[in-house]
Amino acid sequence: MYAKLTLSAAFVALAFSHNALAADHNLSADILVVGAGSAGLTAAVQAAEKGKKVILLEKNLGVGGSSQFAEGLFAVGSEWNRLRSDPLTKEEAFKTLMEKHGYVIDAAKTKDYVEGSAENISWLAGHGIKFEVVRMTPWEAATWHVISDYKGTNHGAGLIKGLKDAADKAGVETKLGTPATELILNKEGAVVGAKAADKKGNTYTISAKAVILATGGFGDDPQKVKNWAHRDPEGWKSSVPIGKTGDGIVMATKAGAAMGNVSFVQHLGTEGKGIKFLGNLYATSWQPSALWVNCDGNRFSNEDVAFSFAQAANAIYAQPHHYGWSIFDDSQVQYMMKKGVDSGIGVLVPVGQKLPNLQKEIDDAVTVKSDGFKTADSVAQLAKELGVPEANLQKAVEQYNKACEVGHDGEYYKEKTYLRPLNTKKLYAIKLKAYFFSSYGGLNTNRKHQVLDKNNKPIKGLYATGLEVSDMVGPTYSTWSSGHAFGFASYSGRHAALNAIDEMK
Amino acid sequence: MYAKLTLSAAFVALAFSHNALAADHNLSADILVVGAGSAGLTAAVQAAEKGKKVILLEKNLGVGGSSQFAEGLFAVGSEWNRLRSDPLTKEEAFKTLMEKHGYVIDAAKTKDYVEGSAENISWLAGHGIKFEVVRMTPWEAATWHVISDYKGTNHGAGLIKGLKDAADKAGVETKLGTPATELILNKEGAVVGAKAADKKGNTYTISAKAVILATGGFGDDPQKVKNWAHRDPEGWKSSVPIGKTGDGIVMATKAGAAMGNVSFVQHLGTEGKGIKFLGNLYATSWQPSALWVNCDGNRFSNEDVAFSFAQAANAIYAQPHHYGWSIFDDSQVQYMMKKGVDSGIGVLVPVGQKLPNLQKEIDDAVTVKSDGFKTADSVAQLAKELGVPEANLQKAVEQYNKACEVGHDGEYYKEKTYLRPLNTKKLYAIKLKAYFFSSYGGLNTNRKHQVLDKNNKPIKGLYATGLEVSDMVGPTYSTWSSGHAFGFASYSGRHAALNAIDEMK
To answer: Using the beta-carbon criterion (under 8 Å), do B476 and A471 form an inter-chain contact?
Structure first.
């Protein structure tokens, strides 16, 4: 999912301020890559290693983008899977993806991705990046190739560090704090470069034989969330806002690209006064062993849907006013402190990780009278604290405790393992809300990763990669194919570069 | 799916023409039901049988609505399932529905529906309607309870006939050609009746203790398809246009209801000059044993997705310009004429039904130079006829025939049974397009089927049923739970009536 949010402030670009020494520059490259997340960096490295002159633009002051906060990449049938005897075949992966996404996704591109995913991990490993396959929850396949190390750094940051080293070594010219502002077209409508500008007032006119867009999603722009994704930006919030404003999609559509389908990489979560993002208390919101109720005090889902963070977000969003409460008790607190969490938040809070600070964080949240966390010594009091009808909450707790007693959830069939009765003498509740890590989609591409125009013809010289690409996922992200978005970034970046080189011949 | 389209013209309401004898009428009822499809008729019958005075309004000149064209109802664990030893449990049905719809659907209402579905069939059977469970394709569960007979009529028309008889017997006052025009609210915002008008210029002010909306979908209004469903009405077309304009949704939102999520009951199909709807040639468009290519001449899906008509529609819609071609040859024609179809179009063209007129319909389509059907005596000629790049089509046919030869579809993993090589000396192609039978959704309701306002509070006196109800399906209709929409109509109609009566006490 996401890591090290504290880094983000450091590399989000500062506002432009014109400088007296600013100048207009004319540059040229074989391949211009826009955006230095894992998609853009991989494209740049791949192209430069093939001997091409590459310029890489990044609007933020550091490389990495959303990938900086990711952890693992999707792959099927990799060397790492082989050593674990993971049973998933490429055939089953393809079929399951098509089925899970209701055949709204692109079968050809999905097939290519599944087929090429393992080789992609091997290529990255060839650059010194180490991987391990992790199953984050029992509801997913063993597709998640987590970066275990690159020179002392793991997860997304490790991948980015490795790719940046490779880019430097291969001679990629990286310009930070320098967003592309528009694409340059020739008379035939082919893309032949882009304009860019930095905060010192320098402007750049960069000619290139191909432009590879890798600017990521648009989820940090609420207007686009509303107009492009038709989702309520009040109900769905960006969990890692780092300036994802769909710049590549905007530039490409101005250059004639069609607007494609858009989706979200959604997940459950919480927020509130005194609740630390990814802290011990935060981690309780992802647990399957609680009782979930909505603002009417009614239970609304089998709570083990928490094992599928995207589906869990849907379930929460579907409730009145788009939120819920996760109710647990002291025995759960003790369990999480001593035995650790049942459902990991990726590998940031891995399965089984103990939450030693949980009691303290609970006490702190109580002290500051958190709006996202409540405690009570009876169901009646809890109903009051949560502002839900007491009769409904009483019924929900009673039915739930009865289900725990007999070991069968006749209401929503939650797995017996997570049916743990609530001691109503001391109850806790943490608010549940729906978030998205990023949007996923915006531009239609073909199997060569070329951007398509409104007549579905490729725009010569223009490629799109990673989170900008439509029809890789349906409206609900599949957590079953763990690492799908992060894996697709480098996979599509590399193959866009290879195809761009091929087209130049 | 749908039956007897020829009936439709007869009962779509004529334009209004004012009549000199027209008058204003004041009527009253315990329960006013708006719309006389299976949801409205069932609500009316249930309420009248409980001794309530019921008025039933229908804007068309005949009862039935979309149900007239449907065939079977969803149910799990019915008496009919018992006699077939069908293995599906209610637990598995619930879990599968939640999973298939990505938890965007309402778990509580879904649970209620699954639990109550069998009893609903029994209740209908108690009114003389006969059922049989049919598995339409190998990709679905045995949930489809097809109406086998009601006094000589089967399918949706049989159900409607049975319900209409029951309504008449129970004393329901049915007014045809009389659309409700607006809801009447009291000072507290509760619904206390509705206004209506007929084509003779009569107007009606009907007071009622409860109003049950059962006006069906909005799919025949392209503006609503665009604005409510955010789908391109050029790419998605209504297959059975009978005046489904979302009247109930419009009236309810004017009365303060929130607009909920909307979906489609989508399916694949074809159209073109000389192609008879549901004819022998039409039926070939639903077959898994053909080769499907898009307008670029590229194969785009495992063709056995035809077994899931909603997913097949998605796959076709996802192609450039939203269409494709299904290519087959003479051996397939012979197969369909002698052994019958592999994939049924519901029970209208059931699995195994022979297509005796296929050769004649092919000849006729050729004679009229159909835009939806092409024939050629080589791949090169077919490419020309279809207007697709020859090289791509050659490659698609070659790869496909190779897959047939070795009995393994390495591209999209179509089941071996349906890999039948094409004789390129004589090829046929029928156009594939995406349709929807109806929209599904529009109003948020609670477990009592009460319509919810923007604060998620029930609007007193107002109920919604059937295709008007949100959050029963996700963006893609599930053909796995065959009969879901048709089953929900009578199920929700009945329970809305029972709850309305309960609220009156």
So the answer is: no
**How far is B87 from B96, CA to CA, in rounded Å?**
14
Return the CATH number at B244. 3.50.50.60
- CA angle at residue B208 from B499 to B178, to 5 degrees? 110
> Which residue in chain A is spatially nearest to B227 when comparing CA positions?
A230
- Tell me: do B236 and B114 sit in the same domain: yes
Domain co-membership, B499 together with B402: no
Identify all chain B residues contacting A476, using CB atoms and an 8 Å cutoff. Answer: 102-104, 474
- Per the structure, the count of domains in chain B is 2
User: Chain B residues contacting A, CB < 8 Å?
Assistant: 91, 94-95, 98-99, 102-108, 111, 230, 295-296, 298, 300-302, 305, 308, 310-312, 314-315, 318, 320-321, 411-413, 452, 456, 471, 474-476
**Whether A18 and A61 share a structural domain:** yes
Residues B413 and B455 in one domain: no
CA distance A153 to chain B (A): 35
Find where tokens 């009936």 sit.
Answer: B7
Closest residue on chain B to A445 (Cα)? B320
What is the percent of chain A where pLDDT is above 70? 96
**Letter for the amino acid at A142?**
A
Contacts of A302 in chain B (CB under 8 A): 98, 107
Q: Measured between beta carbons, which residues in chain B are less than 8 angstroms from residue A98?
A: 302, 305, 311
Q: Are B456 and A305 within 8 A, CB to CB?
A: no
Do B285 and B385 sit in the same domain of this protein?
yes
Mutate: best of A103, A234, A263, partner B, most B CBs <10 A: A103
CA distance A112 to chain B (A): 9
Domain limits for position A335: 266-435
Q: Check whether residue B486 and residue B406 sit in a common domain.
A: no
From first CA to last CA, the distance across chain B in angstroms is 39
The answer to whether the CB of B346 falls within 8 A of the CB of B353 is no
Judge contact between A131 and A84, C-beta under 8 A: no
Q: What is the pLDDT of residue B240?
A: 86
Specify whether B459 is located in the same domain as B331.
Answer: no
Q: Comparing C-alpha atoms, which of A412, A398, A428, A432 is closest to residue A325?
A: A432
Residue B433: partners with Cβ closer than 8 Å, 6 or more residues away: B237, B268, B269, B270, B271, B316, B322, B323
Provide the b/e sequence for A344-368 (b: ≥16 CB within 10 Å): bbbbbbebebebeebbebbebbeee
Report the residue from A107, A311, A474 with minimal CB separation from B300: A107
Note the pLDDT tens digit of each residue in B472-484.
999 999 999 999 9
| Residue B18 binned pLDDT confidence (cut-offs 50, 70, 90) | low
Asked if the model's pLDDT at residue A1 lies above 60, the reply is: no
Q: Which residue of B has its CA nearest to A410?
A: B91
pLDDT in tens, B398-413: 999 999 999 999 999 9
Angle at alpha carbon of residue B238, lines to B234 and B240, rounded to 5°: 155
Q: Which of B435, B457, B477 is the last residue of a domain?
A: B435
A-chain CB neighbours of B305 within 8 Å are 98, 103
Q: Which two tokens mark B8? A: 């439709």
Enumerate the residues of chain A whose CB falls inside 8 A of the CB of residue B312: 103
Tell me the average pLDDT of chain B.
95
Q: Are A216 and A37 in contact (CB under 8 A)?
A: yes
Q: For residue B14, what pLDDT band results from cuts at 50, 70 and 90?
A: very low
pLDDT in tens, B185-242: 999 999 999 999 999 999 999 999 999 999 999 999 999 999 999 998 888 988 888 8
Specify the CATH number for the domain of residue B375.
Answer: 3.90.700.10
pLDDT given at position A20: 62
| In a shared domain, residues A59 and A154 | yes
Residue where one domain finishes, among candidates A397, A416, A435: A435
pLDDT at A423 over 50: yes
Q: Decide if B314 and A108 are in contact by the 8 Å CB cutoff.
A: no
